[in-house]
Structure formats: C-alpha cells, structure tokens
Amino acid sequence: MLHRMFPTAGWLAALSLSAALLPIGTAQAQYTDLTENQSYIRGCRQIKQGANAIVYDNTDLANKPDNQIGTLFSGTQVVLTGVLRETSDYTAAQVYLANDDLTTTQPVGWVNANQLAPCSGTTPPPTSNTCFRPRTTLIVRSGPSLNAANTGMTFTPASLITPHTQPPSFEVSSDGRVWLHVDTYRGPNWVASTGPNGAGSNLNTEPCR
User: Which residues fall in a compositionally biased region of kind Polar residues (predicted)?
Assistant: First the structure.
C-alpha cells in the first residue's frame, strides 16, 4: 500500500534533497488550492454505479487528454490520500489502489471526486453481472493489440458486450491501450476499452441481461 512505500523519515529527506537540487523556475504550474483533509486519509471510495472514471497524472482534469493515464470502471475501489484540489468546476481527489499501482510507473493519480461514492463494504462490490455498452463502434480483434487480426466483427452502441470472464479481464498493449476480453458468436476475442496510453473510455458498464 502507498503509505508503506514511503517511510516518513526517508521520504522527507528525499523531498528536501530533491527540492535543493531543483532549479528555480522548472515548475510549470503551482496551485494554492491544494488541501489535505486528514479525515479522508486511507478512506475507501468506489467508482459510482454506471460511471467510468478517467485517471489523470495531475490535478488538471478539464479537457486535458495528455494528462490521462487510465480508466477505472464502475465499482472499482480506490483509497484516498486525503489530498484534494477544489476548483470552480470540479474537485480533484488523489487516489491509489490498495493492492496495485494505477500504472507500472505511477502509484497514485487524480480523479473527479464527483465520480466517487462510499465503499459499500470491506470487499469490492459483486462483479459477476458486469457487461459493457460501447460508446462508439468498436472493431473486434483476435488479440489485445492493434496488430492483431481484424475479425470482421464490430460492436456498436446498440450492442451489449459480454466479457469472456467474470470479473472482466483486461490486458494492456505496448501502446498503453487497455483491451477487454469479450465473448462473440465466433468465440473469445478482444476490443479496445481505451485509447492509447489508457486515454478515455470506449465502454460504459451496465448489468448483463
């Protein structure tokens, strides 16, 4: 977990050293509206039902696709660090996953707090009835990569996609796209659930019929 990754003394020493070595003027943006609410630290939240939360690498959440590092689907549980940035348009909450990093290089990220709800319990919500509705027409491929063969099949926004496994299984390709393993009438195949580098989301979650 994140709070175990940075022992206090070592972290403060590293921070002081880094600050001493940083040349003045390298920071592109400094915000005075960051706050820490200690009552939120290590608090459990989950992505709201029916929502997909885009994860950003900083607090600029509005129309910043270059800052997007991934997507968390409905019901995913996250842990709060207690750090928030409140703007006139949104509140950005810093979060991490209790048992994993958000990406291989970044353990924490920022999401819109409006997409978070209190955790329903100490365990993740049931995921045995999770299906997906495409936001756009998606090409079905034989593997989790743009280099995989085009099967000639597509899913449209009128389609309800059934994942091949429950809970759904995902793979990340070399370009950072997240791929969902799906069932089709020709057997299991794959669709891209995000754009490159995990940007955006091509899918909405909804109960299977």
Answer: 191-209
